[in-house]
Amino acid sequence: MKKSFLPEKKFGGYGRFEIKKNYYDEKGTMFIGEAGGFQDYLWGFGMRYAFQSANLAARSIIENESYNDLIKEHLLKKN
Length: 79
What we know:
The longest helix has 16 residues, at 47-62. The mean pLDDT is 79. The protein is 30% helix and 0% strand. It is mainly alpha-helical.
C-alpha cells in the first residue's frame, strides 16, 4: 500500500543578535528578549531569556532598581 504525503512545506528563517552595552533605547524603553540581544547563541532560542528579561524589567520598575544592573547580575553571569 502506497502512502500519500502532503507537499513539503519549508520553514526557517534567520536571526541576528548583538551584545548591547545599554538595555534601554533613547526614550527609556527597556529592551527584553531578542530585542535586547538575549538569545541562546548556540541553538538560537530566546523564550527563556524573553521571560527572564521581562521579569527583570518589571522588577526594575516596581522596585526602582537599575535594569542594566539586574541584567548584568542575573543574565550575564560568568560561569
